[in-house]
Design a protein that fits this description.
HIT family, subunit A; 10-stranded antiparallel beta sheet; 14 strands
Length: 335
């Protein structure tokens, strides 16, 4: 059984999960990358995974059988488990919780060697629609406080399964970084009476130095103080704290810009390993948070390795100017 433990000095939560050490490494294990009965995410191998929570399917096909275009399943080796009891742990300075929560896998499509950005925009929209549905469903659990959706692309970015997929982790606590980010948003709003992300979008559009791409509803940019080379943030142009409040039209526009942004990144960096993280407001409805926070998606190419200085100080060394990264991405020729 996993545990959540809180560091008494930093207030940072850590998940201790022995089950995660049991994960098999399927990445490129067949050599040709074609996918066959070894891959638990390929059609015909549904018996290798836990039963699906959500699936988009062809008419007339049965649950947990081939015929799906997208599947959401519980992670077979979860960092946290749903259905567990909420039990305080530790004593004295040391505080913790039993490892309750949810850990899910979103299998984006049935094609073993096709990346998400290569799919038609309507299929990417379906993936983003599945994100929304899972957020809405999980918010009904009163024990959950924060939900993160993320993707690890490439072995060095943390994936053990090359069949492209995303993951969702729902926590019974709000992570320290999220709490600190909301606190900074609150301070800016109290002083300026506007969301800091909305002000950032306004300044970036007026300067036009770090914009990678934009459409009628979203903007992709390299943040002014990017921690990583070619780091990109995608934000809705209209203020919204919660991803799950997106309309169908907004999800379609998001898919369009996401596809273009990832295609540019792949073209410039030759299919780099990367992580993306969807940042949305904590689960519980809060009018103040809804006013001050702005949901967004962060994309982190993994081009360098964090070393002692970064880990010891929290100060990142980025060898690429964000303005130059944005210009290179903008100028990339994509079909």
């Amino acid at each position: 059984m996993s545990e959540l433990r809180k560091d008494p000095i930093s207030n940072r939560w850590v998940i201790v999960s022995k089950e995660r050490a049991q994960r098999p490494d399927y990445y490129s294990s067949k050599g040709d990358g074609s996918g066959d009965e070894l891959c638990p995410f390929c059609p015909g191998n549904e018996k290798m995974t836990p039963p699906e929570i959500l699936a988009y399917r062809e008419d007339g096909t049965s649950a947990n059988k081939p015929g799906w275009t997208l599947r959401v399943i519980p992670n077979k080796y979860p960092a946290l488990r749903d259905g567990a009891d909420f039990v305080p742990l530790g004593s004295g300075l040391f505080h913790g919780l039993s490892g309750i929560g949810s850990h899910e896998v979103i299998i984006e499509h049935p094609y073993h060697m096709t990346e998400l950005e290569h799919l038609p925009e309507n299929h990417i929209t379906d993936c983003f629609r599945a994100f929304k549905k899972r957020l809405v469903d999980l918010k009904s659990d009163p024990q959950l406080q924060h939900i993160t959706i993320f993707k690890n692309h490439g072995k060095s970015a943390g994936t053990t399964q090359e069949h492209t997929h995303c993951q969702l982790v729902a926590l019974p606590v709000i992570p320290k970084e999220v709490s600190e980010q909301i606190s900074r948003c609150r301070h800016y709003y109290s002083t300026n009476n506007i969301c800091i992300y909305c002000d950032i979008i306004s300044q970036e559009r007026s300067q036009n130095l770090r914009i990678v791409a934009q459409n009628e509803s979203f903007i992709a940019l390299c943040p002014y103080a990017s921690r990583f080379s070619f780091e990109i943030t995608i934000l809705p142009l209209n203020h919204s704290a919660r991803y799950e409040n997106c309309s169908d039209q907004e999800l379609s526009s998001f898919a369009e810009l996401f596809k273009e942004t990832l295609t540019r990144l792949r073209k410039v960096l030759d299919n780099p390993p990367y992580n993306f993280v969807l940042h949305t407001a904590p689960v519980q409805k809060d009018d103040e948070t809804d006013s001050i926070f702005h949901w967004h998606l962060s994309i982190f190419p993994k081009l360098t390795t964090l070393a002692g200085f970064e880990k010891g100080t929290g100060v990142y060394i980025n060898p690429t100017l964000p303005e130059e990264a944005a210009e290179t991405l903008r100028n990339a020729h994509i079909e």
